[in-house]
Design goal:
Blueprint: H1 3-17, E1 21-25, E2 28-32, H2 34-46, H3 51-58, H4 62-74, E3 78-83, E4 86-94, H5 96-117, H6 122-150
Antiparallel strand pairs: 1-2, 3-4
Helix pairs in contact: 2-4, 3-4
């Protein structure tokens, strides 16, 4: 497959994955942009987290995380509490509403993937995961290498 064709398919995948995510919370439906949803995902999986730790996990600037956390707080999906280890710092945790909304949304998204892959042989599904894992790792390494070369 020519690289341009691969780039085209990756762009198509990125556009589909970047669509806003709808979560059902206590006050009805909330539409989150993809980065806020990914922040919620990390908070649910890794939390409670300091915003600086969340920024590191997501690979973004603290100001970006602050906006994402604010959007999640406004939706009632996360709360900030004082870090018991350091009263000067805050921890961001998923609320019960946030956990429930995230679980429902993840279940729906998993159902869509299951539907898409239902007719794929088990070996093809395993190959897809294996190759995407390899591709993402090598892509990350190549990007880091290029960034290191361009730093003064």
């Amino acid at each position: 497959m020519p690289t341009t064709e691969l780039e085209q398919q990756l762009s198509l995948l990125a556009r589909r994955l970047s669509k806003p995510v709808r979560l059902h919370g206590s006050s009805g439906w909330t539409v989150l942009d993809r980065p806020a949803y990914q922040a919620l995902w990390r908070i649910v999986e890794e939390g409670p987290l300091r915003p600086t730790a969340l920024a590191g996990l997501l690979g973004v600037d603290l100001s970006v995380v602050s906006r994402q956390v604010r959007a999640l707080e406004d939706a009632g999906f996360v709360s900030r509490n004082t870090d018991p280890a350091d009263a000067r710092a805050a921890l961001v945790s998923a609320t019960e509403v946030g956990l429930a909304a995230f679980d429902r949304t993840r279940k729906q998204r998993t159902e869509v993937l299951d539907e898409v892959l239902a007719r794929w042989p088990t070996e093809d599904r395993a190959d897809l995961v294996r190759l995407l894992t390899r591709f993402n790792a090598e892509l990350e390494a190549a990007i880091a290498h290029r960034q290191a070369l361009s730093e003064p």
